[in-house]
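May I ask for a protein sequence together with how it folds?
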Amino acid sequence: MSAAVKAHLVGIVMGSRSDWPTLQKAADILTELGVPFETRVVSAHRTPDRLVAYSKSARGRGIKVIIAGADGLGRRDGGRRKMSSQPTGVIARPGDAIGILGGGQLGRMLAIAAADLGLDVHIFTPEEDSPAARVAKRTWVADWKDTAALKEFAASIVAATLEFENVPVAAADLIEAEGKPMRPNGRTLSRTQDRLAEKTFLREIGIEPAPFARVDGPDDIEKALKQLGGNGVLKSRFSGYDGKGQVRLKGSVPPNAWADVGAGPSLVEAWIEHDREISVVAARSANGDFVAFDPPENDHSGGILRCSTFPSSAPQAVLDEAVRLARKLADALDYVGVLALELFLTKDGKLLANEFAPRVHNSGHWTQDACITGQFEQHIRAVAGWPLGDPSRHSDGEMINLLGEDAACWEQYLREGAKLHLYGKRHAASGRKMGHITRLRPKT
């Protein structure tokens, strides 16, 4: 009568048989202790789907512990990322249509990048005659709540993305419900549309934001300001951008502060005396691959980005840490596409998060002209399920935003040899982004 076979309690996983000499000691100890185990050769790099399948089935088969060799251990976070709901592999092929929610200048530049890759773009926007619509193959002009139009739009595309983070979460969720990958998805949007949720999330994953305090009514503002040292910024929790919905607080609360942020849920952020502000514009694919552009240094005026200088002159160790934080963020979100993490470098050398954007970003516009693969192409690649491109920078320089008050000077920039990008907006207004220029210099 044969002896009963004990169920395996431990799985020993190696990326290749060459890892066995390293793991054999573990097998010897388990044998000595009488602990039943199994061995598997499964590469996280070459066959990630097999690693996911093995991990998912382990508990059901009675496996209590998995011991991973160099390949599995080195991609430990990657292995976890593979177990997401994100579909991997090619989604869009040349001739297929990518959908973009929103019709502004970011959608326009995404559509141009998609066309360069042989992909069509369909736009969904409530705005008539939008910048993106002029370069897209098809456009749906409808309200975000028009579910019939959204379903028709979803039926015409193979995957969708967005060009600004205030797209209603319900619209993004509907696209997914129609069976089309939405990159980024509604779960990510819900974290970025509320500044309190965003900063709480950053803190939870180990990325420290500037100190903040919640404000639910006008009486909370002074208390929050005092808690944060008497110097801060009152910000609406929802819908603010480019300095809108913000009030600077210097020791006291202006009489109209609450009204100026919309008299709704807000927060106070401590004012950070920083040495400089940098941003990391990075991309992550559905299978967990990650690349980052060299972080630029950003100058703002009135809450609006005016200039990004690349590369930043911050110490390399600081820039490396900034990229590490961006990767931590992308992995925590199970993100697909390009995102940006804005950071303050304090005078004592500490990095504090300002905010993150789940989209291509103004501080990454220079990559169009100074990198092998720019941010717009990179984002389309990720959304389409294509391999990420090379983000290497071949030039130094600066990107300068052209606002409404600068719009008449566009011919001047042509004469000086700068790369000019105009967004096709019909009406110029003070503070409105009408285009940008990129000045390039030889890389040092």
